[in-house]
Amino acid sequence: MTKTILFDLTDAEREEFITQMGQPRFRAKQISEWLMRGAPNFSVMKNLPETLRAELDNVAQTLPVRIVKKLESSDGQTTKFLLELNDCEQIECVLMRTSYGNSVCVSSQAGCAMGCKFCASTLLGLKRNLTVNEIFAQILVAQWELRTDNFSSNPIRPNGDANNNDVSHIVIMGTGEPLQNVENVIGFIERANHDMGIGWRRITVSTCGIVPGIEELIKWGRPINLAISLHAPNDELRKKMMPIANKYSIREVMDAAWRFTDLHNRQLMIEYLLAGDKDGNLLNATPECANELAEILRGKNCMVNLIPWNAVAEREFTSPSGNAVHRFQDILIKNGVHARIRRERGNDIGSACGQLRLNNKKD
Ligand code: SAH
Fold this sequence. Notes:
Number of helices: 11
Number of domains: 2
Bound molecules: S-adenosyl-L-homocysteine
CATH architecture of the largest domain: Alpha-Beta Barrel
Low-confidence stretches: 150-162
Mean pLDDT: 92
CATH class of the largest domain: Alpha Beta
Number of strands: 14
Strand content: 15-25%
């Protein structure tokens, strides 16, 4: 028998479900509170009678996701979850404890159709879009982890902040292309803002540059952060790395992106992966590329995140040397373009896009 997912029910439906089990109404409210805290099962719901918890366990489950694997980086700051959905598809989400708060990177699709040549997420193609609840549940998994952290054996945690145990930032930068699932992504962001009080400005959507999707965000009108995965300063090179470049030119993508950020007076984030080819020749990380990129971005309100390529065994790229990365950054900065090198978080636990899911499939 398939179990009812209580998180997927409306308040009224949950009440009906509980009263049909012969329980008083207020139990439904108690359960709802547990669900919003991310309770992974019923046994943690200590304010419910034990018999009810056991009964619920037979007929229902809490969230539409189940933790398959949980990996923690050696510094204790990053936790990566491999989650299973009800149709057995798997997705990843990552909790990053930072000096500015607790950030969660969520997936928007199971798999990805974009085919970027350097990425692990897309290797098995797109399975399906995630629902609003499946995206939201990833935040709740992280929230639960933060709240139960106090009992964890790992002593190294940032502290001093009263909201230390809450998710404060969301990046939609996990598996999938969020603007291919724009309706559910918007639905999710609205809920994260409304139900969890996470400010628009603490939420970032990262896209490979789906222009109609950016138009949707413009119409929607919320002042979230937008990140564009640019990765190359000209269309010719970009086409070699990202098939989407055959559909939308850099000019079209950037025009739409600037319109979005101008509307909200926000800084645009540019994701720029730095990679070499399989023989180690710099591909998009040459000084010429840096100069060309600076041409596009000079005088604009943006921040370039330089991401040295995270090795993916199935992909024929190489990571550039630290020198090459710093030289690239220097050129941008000399041209007046803000640029920082993305600190690699949780590298030891396979945090690069889609690696965990991919490796689990191979096991
Ligand atoms: N589809 C969206 C969001 C998911 S990818 C997008 O393209 O923005 C999140 C970011 O990780 C993107 O910038 C992506 O290009 C980058 N990425 C993918 N594989 C990577 C790898 N192996 N190393 C470093 N960054 C990678």
